[in-house]
């Protein structure tokens, strides 16, 4: 009995230490276990590449800025080609009616005093990073603090479609419009 490519009996055999399965069709097809493992490996690699491609397409949406605000976004970044952004940010804040509580030219940050929007107060925190103006807003509900007898528990504003948070977000957007419309939104 022969166990080689010339075999026409469709048997499982040993050829040079590798098991071969011979299946006869119109032509002889010789598929060794090592070749099957090779094909299995290629399929496995293709599946991993598919998963990697999917990850690479979705990952930027999760971590990098988006051009529209999204649920949970808490940071607005405006890319500007203006010079002296730190001084310009201070000037725009004053023009828009904000009082500056703290300004640090070494760290390029400006924090405004609290302002009212409906029943809560908000403040802007502006940071200059290279050609970017990063803006965040903190909120405080003094009425709730008075009822609960607590002192100043504030929180970082996250974008929402409606409510007082939306009103505070619109104040931040209004200030950002001073620097142009090249905006990105992040969750930090």
Query: How large is the share of residues in beta strands?
Result: 25-35%
- Total strand segments: 11
Largest sheet: 8 strands, antiparallel
Q: Cα-atom Rg, whole angstroms? A: 32 Å
Termini separation? 72 Å
**Helical proportion?**
25-40%
Mean pLDDT score, rounded?
77
Counting H and I runs of at least 4 residues, what is the number of helices? Answer: 4
Secondary-structure-based class equals alpha+beta
Low-confidence stretches: 7-29
Overall 3D geometry? elongated
H/E topology pattern: EEEHEHEEEEEHEHE
Give your account of this protein's structure.
The protein is α+β, with helices and mostly antiparallel strands. It has helices spanning 33-63, 85-95, 142-147, 164-176, and strands at 12-15, 18-24, 28-32, 75-79, 100-104, 109-112, 115-117, 120-129, 132-140, 154-156, 183-186. The strands form two sheets. Strands 4, 5, 6, 7, 8, 9, 10 and 11 form an eight-stranded antiparallel beta sheet that branches. A three-stranded antiparallel beta sheet has the order 1-2-3. Strand 7 (115-117) and strand 8 (120-129) form a beta hairpin. The model is unreliable at 7-29 (pLDDT under 50).
Write the layout of secondary structure elements.
Blueprint: E1 12-15, E2 18-24, E3 28-32, H1 33-63, E4 75-79, H2 85-95, E5 100-104, E6 109-112, E7 115-117, E8 120-129, E9 132-140, H3 142-147, E10 154-156, H4 164-176, E11 183-186
Antiparallel strand pairs: 1-2, 2-3, 4-9, 4-11, 5-6, 6-8, 7-8, 8-9, 9-10
